Every structure is written in structure tokens, then in C-alpha cells.
Amino acid sequence: MSDGGDLVELAKRRGFFLQSAGAYGGVSGFYTFGPSGAALKQNIEDTWRDRFTIQEGNMEVDAPTVMPEPVFEASGHLDGFDDMLVECPDCGESHRADHIVEDNTDIEEAESIPVAEVEELIAEYELVCPTCGTGLAGQAIEDFNLMFETNIGPGSADPGYLRPETAQGIFIEFPQLAEYARNQLPFGVTQIGRAYRNEISPRKSLLRVREFTQAELELFVDPEEDEPALEAVADVTAPFYPAADQEADEGQPYEATIREVVDEGVVGKPWIAYYLGVAKQWYESIGVDMDRFRFRQHLSGERAHYAADCWDAEAEVDGDWIELGGFAYRSDYDLSKHDSYSDEEFTVFKQYDEPITVERATVDPDMSYLGPEFGGSAGAVADALEALAERDPDAFDGSEVVVEVDGESHAVPVEKTNFGVEEVTESGEHITPHVVEPSLGIDRALYTALDHSYREDEVDGEHRSYLTLPAAVAPTTVGVFPLMDRDGMGEYAREVVDELRGAGLAVTYDDSGAIGRRYRRQDEVGTPFCVTVDYATLGEARDDEGESAAPDTVTVRERDTTAQKRVPVADLPETLTALRDGERTFDDL
Ligand code: ATP
């Protein structure tokens, strides 16, 4: 574990990430990933894609980051995607009121507390501005919408927004995506991409930024029929922290298997439990320490009204529990919204096993009566009669039936509607799928993997800091060094580099400085293996170096143990690939 400062310093020095636009004073909440960070991020995204898209048989899309206003009217972001802003009356700095409460009291998840109560808490605890120390009691809290607004095209007639989550890019294309999935539920659509939130006070380095990467899966299921293949993750264990335990005095997270939390009803929706199992395996595979990880259920005030169940994956970083990802059962909320706000249907046609016969009410209004009676409204009255027959056939029981058109009531004798009931055969029905959404943040996962893999120790009397990143995500898999760049060792090592790169390995070459320093440099960026070409490789025995001739072999050094083994150069591509992919261990060599 690092203290946050060590990690941020290492991240900048070794090219993981740095605050962007430093030459212009830097801008809060925006980070540039350097060479090591960009490679690590790409590898983390690749493993996510492999696990959540390829292995699950889902489809991936890549939608625009700017979207027109109606999308966010329908999604609810325009009205409700707000944080609580409190402004300091003295220095003018803006802060998140709920964070001030959380940081200075024992209260957790203050985001779920109503605004008026947060104002009272600020007064009661005499909370002050984190920047200048001025008391904030009596300051009004405002709702601040987190979306970045822009204009599409010249002028301001067409407002657009940078997407605050990748999900809407999937939902709005549902009608077409359902076609690609041949209208067969369940089907899942993933997306990895940038999201933007104008956070009131970005903080904790990558953990709260204004531009970040999300990896989201929207799984569309038939709520009546579809079940996950729970067996695949039934034995996965993780710490669970249900809402009831959070609210109990002595409540603590406890270890359980996915099977147990489903059987005991702790996680109410098996689909959510399934993806908690998948996610636990994935977080572990990228280097998140499972002793500092848990699944926490949302408290009832925290959960969106439409979400039937919601859990967060959380990790402990610098003494705080932070949200790495959210897992929500969103019911039919998103698709119903877009269905009613747009011109398209957001449903799938569900075929029955056997066609069924049902009674259907029909009308065939007598237009020779409706025309003279209702004039220009006659067509609309006929449509209203048709809709009413479908909705409420009993309305036609009396001698006349009343429909509303443009706020006006029109009475029509039932005999003029030609109301009747016919038997029809139906092969299926249109249903609105429910959505299961694992929504993971890549930046927080990356930061946590770095923080949890940071170690310090002593090697040969020298201090070293190193990252125990799993080989599958480490920015570089192999460092290749000549013992010295002379007597042909440099040329030999460069040939090894070409060979390994040709085999698809991420390789770095380094011949500058003492060999120990070069190992330290690779340790600090988490390179799991280093290969050294020495005199023995060239077939020369050097008594003063303690080496005997071992032609065309090199030493391979493992980062965490610093143990070294000699491996034939011819075997290197295969051996190192197997080590990276977890198919062999260093001990087996
Ligand atoms: P928080 O409560 O921490 O603001 P959230 O509940 O609003 O997060 P979601 O809307 O569920 O977050 O977004 C899904 C994921 O996206 C989060 O779990 C997180 O990993 C990531 N994320 C959200 N906001 C940010 C941010 N400002 N910076 C970095 N990552 C973020």
C-alpha cells in the first residue's frame, strides 16, 4: 500500500498519469495518461472486453460522446443529474455539500440525504469551507447539474451535451440492436468509452475527475423467463455488506459465495449476483487486493426509484472506501422512457411457444353518422373509439359511449360504433425488456490496482519500490538488457527484443546504467520479467563474473521474488507468453 502522495509522485515520474495542461497551470479533473499509464489502461480495458464482452457472448458498440438534448430529457439527466453545491461566502470556492458532511462527521452516503437536512447538518456540526475555514452555516445548497453543455452546429438552437455515462448511447439504439440480436432475449451490449461530468470539486487524483472512461454492459432480459448461468460463478466468494448490516449497530461485511447470497435472498436479483461474481474475478485479475474489496448494497435512500436492487463494488484506498463500479437492476425504466419520448418502439416481439386465441374488441364507426355529427373532429373521434375499445371494452356496455378529443367530450350511440368482439390468434406479444447494468469505471480500477500493488522492500541492501501488477495488465511484459552494451551483447539483446516483439509481447530495451538500476526502473513500472544477455549467452565463460559458458541462454528474473533462472533463447517467446497469460508459473521453469 502506498500513501496517496507516493503513488501520485511515482505515477508522474514513471509515466502513468499526470494532471494535464501543466504548462498552462493545469486544470482540475483532467489527466493525461503517460506511456506506462496508457498501456496499463489499454490492457485493463482489453481484459474487461475479454471477460464482459467476448466470454459472455455480448456485442460491443462505440457511440458518440456528444448527444442531443432530447436524449437527456428522456433519460432524466437534464432534470435530475445534480450534485449538492455549497459556495463559501468568503473565498467563493464551490464544494460538494454532501462530501463536507461525510469528511467531517461519521455520516456516510450523505448524497442520499435530502438537501434541507444537509443544510441543517452543516449548521449543527458547524462545518467550514475546506479551502479557507469560513463557517458554512446558513449557506444555501444549490442543485448543480453535472453535464457539460455544448451546441451542435453554429448558433445555440441545437443544444447538446457531453454524455455523462456511456449507457445512453446503447439505450437509444435499442431498436436496431435488438434486430442485430434477432430479437432474442437475453442479449447484452457493451461499450468502453469516455464519459464527462463537471464535478464540483474533483479530488483524489484519478478517483474523481471530469473526464473518465467507463466500461458498461447493458443486458436486456425477459424478466419472466431469463435466468443467468449462475453455476459458472456460484463458488466465487466475496465480502458482502447488505443494507441491513450497514444500518445495524454492529453490522460488518461478511464473506459469502454467490450461491449463498442468492439462496439467502441477500442479493435479490440473480442476474446482479451473477455479474458480481464475474466482476469479482475481473477485479482480482487486474490486481485489486481482495482483502480491501467488498460489495456494498445501496441503502434505500441511495437507490434510484426504478432500481429494484443496486450494489457497488468498493475498494479501500488511502483509508476510504471508494466506489469502483455499480450493479443495478434497472427494470424497464430506460427503454420505457425512450419508448415514450421518441418515435420508435423500444420493445421486442416475444413469440409464444404455441399460438393462443384471444378475444379482441373491435369497432368500425359509421362515418356517415360521425361526419355530419362531429365535422372536422370525426376522424379523431373514430380513432379515440378504437383506442377505447382496446383499452376498456366495458365502456361499450351502455347505449352510448363517451370519448375525449382535444379536451372535449363527445357522446356516440353504441350502435353507430359497430362494436363487436372477435376471436383472434396471436403468435406472441411485444414486451419491454428489463435492464441489468454493470457500470464500471476504468480510471478508478486502474488507480486502485496501482495503489494495491505498490510495495517497498530492500534488495541487496538497497531500497526498492515496485508494483506487483499482474503480468496480464502490466504496461510492459519484459525488460531486455545486455549486461553491458559491448562485445556483441547489445546486438544480441536487440535481436532478442525483435524476436519477442514479433511474438506479440510488450518489450522494453534498456542498456543505460548499472544493471541493478535497470531492474529497479522496471520494478517501479511493474514489469514482471527481465531478460539479461550476458557473456554466458555469447558462449563465453568469465571467471571474474562467476559465469560459465551457457551459449544462447539468458537469465530471466521475476520481479516480485527477484529470483533468476536461465532459459534457452529459443524458448523465450513461448515461455514468456505462457507466463504472461498465466499458463505457466515462474516456479515451473
Ligand atoms: P460517485 O457517487 O462516486 O460520484 P456514481 O455513483 O455517480 O459515482 P456511476 O454513475 O454509478 O457513479 O458511474 C459508474 C462508475 O463510473 C463509477 O463506479 C466510477 O467508477 C465511475 N465514475 C463515476 N464518476 C466518476 C468520476 N467523476 N471520476 C472517475 N470515475 C467516475
UniProtKB/TrEMBL annotation:
<dbReference type="Pfam" id="PF03129">
    <property type="entry name" value="HGTP_anticodon"/>
</dbReference>
<dbReference type="InterPro" id="IPR002314">
    <property type="entry name" value="aa-tRNA-synt_IIb"/>
</dbReference>
<dbReference type="GO" id="GO:0005524">
    <property type="term" value="F:ATP binding"/>
</dbReference>
<dbReference type="GO" id="GO:0004820">
    <property type="term" value="F:glycine-tRNA ligase activity"/>
</dbReference>
<keyword id="KW-0067">ATP-binding</keyword>
<dbReference type="InterPro" id="IPR027031">
    <property type="entry name" value="Gly-tRNA_synthase/POLG2"/>
</dbReference>
<dbReference type="InterPro" id="IPR002315">
    <property type="entry name" value="tRNA-synt_gly"/>
</dbReference>
<dbReference type="InterPro" id="IPR036621">
    <property type="entry name" value="Anticodon-bd_dom_sf"/>
</dbReference>
<feature type="domain" description="Aminoacyl-transfer RNA synthetases class-II family profile">
    <location>
        <begin position="6"/>
        <end position="470"/>
    </location>
</feature>
<dbReference type="InterPro" id="IPR033731">
    <property type="entry name" value="GlyRS-like_core"/>
</dbReference>
<keyword id="KW-0648">Protein biosynthesis</keyword>
<dbReference type="GO" id="GO:0005737">
    <property type="term" value="C:cytoplasm"/>
</dbReference>
<keyword id="KW-0030">Aminoacyl-tRNA synthetase</keyword>
<keyword id="KW-0436">Ligase</keyword>
<dbReference type="InterPro" id="IPR045864">
    <property type="entry name" value="aa-tRNA-synth_II/BPL/LPL"/>
</dbReference>
<dbReference type="InterPro" id="IPR006195">
    <property type="entry name" value="aa-tRNA-synth_II"/>
</dbReference>
<dbReference type="InterPro" id="IPR004154">
    <property type="entry name" value="Anticodon-bd"/>
</dbReference>
<keyword id="KW-0547">Nucleotide-binding</keyword>
<comment type="similarity">
    <text>Belongs to the class-II aminoacyl-tRNA synthetase family.</text>
</comment>
<dbReference type="GO" id="GO:0006426">
    <property type="term" value="P:glycyl-tRNA aminoacylation"/>
</dbReference>
<dbReference type="Pfam" id="PF00587">
    <property type="entry name" value="tRNA-synt_2b"/>
</dbReference>
<protein>
    <recommendedName>
        <fullName>glycine--tRNA ligase</fullName>
        <ecNumber>6.1.1.14</ecNumber>
    </recommendedName>
</protein>
<feature type="compositionally biased region" description="Basic and acidic residues">
    <location>
        <begin position="580"/>
        <end position="589"/>
    </location>
</feature>
<feature type="region of interest" description="Disordered">
    <location>
        <begin position="542"/>
        <end position="589"/>
    </location>
</feature>
